[in-house]
Specification:
The protein is mainly α. It has 22 helices and no strands.
Length: 425
């Protein structure tokens, strides 16, 4: 049955059938032809999969990111980042990475980060003489920090699927996020100097004092949201609603840039994005239920333990498999399907469940920037108005930088776990 479902799903992928539909049809094939379960189980399992309180955070964080864009918060964050690093040669691309890191501390979505920051900085980099394809590739890559630096929608999904504390996953994401962000900044500064780009990046930027004053309420947003979580005042799910209210308050009453038209558009885009993600989660949950019911999860776990005799080989194999899977399957679906399978196996090898969760999230986040289904690639190409094939060559070095960081995160557990241990232990 599992083989048939896998073949059906891959065949539907090859026919360009949407991911959620492919997963759902494969699951229905398994139920109808190999299992005696009545069809009503399909509806029941779709409901059970989505009937989890932490999933409420997904639409709220997506909406918060879109409201930040509509209310002028993202533009002020860009000016603040330019004031810090914009005076360097290569300051504009460095500001792009730094802005994505700040924006990530609220949005939880890489796609929202791509649109909000890219709409400002991709045209700015092109005007400053950077190749448009390179600027778009940088924006797409830096935006994946939106799911690594907390809050993070994939971390919420992993916490739900593997029964791991979302709060611990959030705080463990800071180390990897800062590592990847710092590596990208160092790389773009080096490339800019080597290519002779960005010698006039400092022109037109605000002073640090003026930029900080202008972005004060924007910079306070991560403090309010994350401070509420780690101060014990709100749960991560409640913090997502707090982020929405704060974005509306600042955009409408402080900056006075959030109008009804912008609010309506932000809500519309958020509803569409949320429905897409939750639709995938629901059908992936059904597929996961069938796989677990048939004992496939336990069989895979036993096979891995018998084949790979130590945790280092296991980590190498998992990273290779996740990298390939991330290229073809949407991150949310991959986490919902694979976390219940791999997390128990990782525990048997003595791996911390939070560390393994961070490895999964960072690895699958690379799928946002790898063809053929990298959503950040499509978003950046839309902003830059270039065809997809132009962004692939300049994207390869950025992927290399992220993969080097992934190996460090995998084999140096202190990177994600040091801050977690200081707070929770």
């Amino acid at each position: 049955m599992s083989t048939t479902m896998l073949v059906a799903m891959c065949a539907l992928f090859a026919l360009a059938v949407p991911i959620a539909v492919s997963i759902g049809l494969a699951a229905i094939v398994g139920i109808q032809f190999f299992d005696a379960m009545p069809p009503i189980v399909i509806g029941q399992q779709l409901y059970v999969t989505l009937d989890r309180f932490p999933l409420v955070a997904i639409p709220f964080f997506i909406l918060a990111g879109n409201l930040m864009d509509a209310g002028g918060i993202s533009r002020r964050l860009v000016e603040f980042a330019r004031a810090i690093v914009g005076g360097l040669q290569g300051g504009l691309p460095a500001a792009c990475v730094l802005t994505c890191m700040i924006f990530a501390a609220v949005s939880g979505s890489s796609t929202a980060t791509t649109f909000a920051v890219g709409a400002v900085l991709i045209p700015a980099m092109v005007r400053a003489g950077y190749p448009v394809a390179w600027a778009a590739a940088l924006q797409a890559c830096a935006a994946e920090l939106g799911v690594i630096i907390p809050p993070s929608i994939p971390m919420i999904l992993y916490g739900v699927a593997a029964d791991v504390s979302v709060g611990e996953l959030f705080i463990a994401g800071f180390g990897p996020g800062f590592l990847i962000g710092g590596a990208l900044i160092a790389y773009v500064l080096w490339v800019s100097r080597r290519k002779g780009w960005g010698k006039r990046d400092g022109e037109g930027r605000q002073t640090l004092g003026a930029a900080t004053l202008s972005a004060f309420w924007a910079l306070l947003m991560p403090v309010v949201v994350l401070g509420g979580i780690y101060g014990g005042l709100v749960t991560p799910t409640e913090a997502s609603a707090l982020a929405v209210f704060y974005a509306v308050f600042v955009g409408a009453l402080i900056h006075r840039e959030l109008r009804w038209a912008g609010l309506s558009d932000a809500v519309r885009r958020s509803v569409i994005s949320s429905c897409v993600v939750l639709f995938i989660i629901a059908w992936a949950g059904l597929l996961g239920f069938i796989v677990n019911r048939e004992g496939v999860t336990a069989d895979i776990g036993r096979w891995i333990i018998e084949t790979l005799d130590n945790k280092w080989l296991f980590l190498i194999a998992v990273n290779v498999v996740l990298f390939v899977i991330g290229m073809f399957i949407e991150t949310s679906a991959a986490i919902i399907i694979l976390a219940p399978i791999l997390a128990p196996v990782a525990a048997k090898f003595g791996l911390d469940p939070v560390h393994f969760g961070i490895i999964m999230v960072v690895n699958l986040a690379v799928g946002f920037i790898t063809p053929p289904f990298g959503v950040n690639l499509f978003a950046a190409c839309m902003v830059a108005r270039i065809p997809l094939q132009k962004i692939i060559p300049p994207m390869i070095p950025f992927i290399g930088v992220v993969l080097v960081c992934l190996m460090l995160i995998t084999f140096i557990p202190a990177i994600p776990l040091t801050l977690r241990d200081l707070v929770y232990r």
